[in-house]
Write a structure and sequence with these properties.
Strand content: 5-15%
CATH superfamily: 5'-nuclease
Strand order of the largest sheet: 1-4-5
Distance between the termini: 14 Å
Order of helices and strands: EHEHHEHHEHEH
Oligomer: single chain
Helix content: 55-70%
Low-confidence stretches: none
Radius of gyration: 15 Å
Structural class: mainly alpha
Largest sheet: 3 strands, parallel
Number of domains: 1
């Protein structure tokens, strides 16, 4: 089974050293920027990591993204907006929901609020749900 990972699930896979689960699966180009923001937030605003640790994490993120199928939502902006309006979620989140639905993928996210809103529209789970299946 193939999955579409959002940035929250990719970051959790990194933190929990479960990187193998994302390899060969999908994410949106948007995840690159969201992961950069997660790193920036942890360094600049929350001081959870040093500058050197953030540089190492940035390299890890880059390496992981190179093992994934990174896809675009270009030419589907109208459809994504419709999903956002229907589900009352952000355009960013709707991008993931739209692509997962269009390609028949399960969306993997750690965002509980998003998960609750999108389940009627698309199959979705948390990282822990699929890591239990792969054991």
């Amino acid at each position: 089974m193939k999955y579409l990972f959002d940035s929250s699930a990719i970051f959790k896979a990194i933190k929990e050293n479960k990187i193998e689960i994302v390899v060969g699966n999908y994410t949106l180009e948007l995840a690159r920027y969201e992961l950069g923001n997660i790193l920036w937030n942890n360094f600049a605003f929350q001081a959870k990591a040093t500058e050197e640790e953030i540089k190492i994490l940035a390299k890890i993120v880059k390496q992981i993204l190179h093992t994934m199928e990174i896809v675009q939502i270009s030419c589907h902006e109208e459809e994504v907006l419709q999903v956002a309006a229907k589900l009352k979620i952000t355009f960013y989140d709707a991008s993931y929901a739209y692509y997962a639905n269009a390609k028949g993928l399960t969306l993997i996210t750690e965002d509980s609020q998003l998960l609750r809103k999108i389940v009627p529209y698309v199959k979705a789970s948390k990282l822990s749900d699929i890591t239990q299946l792969t054991k």
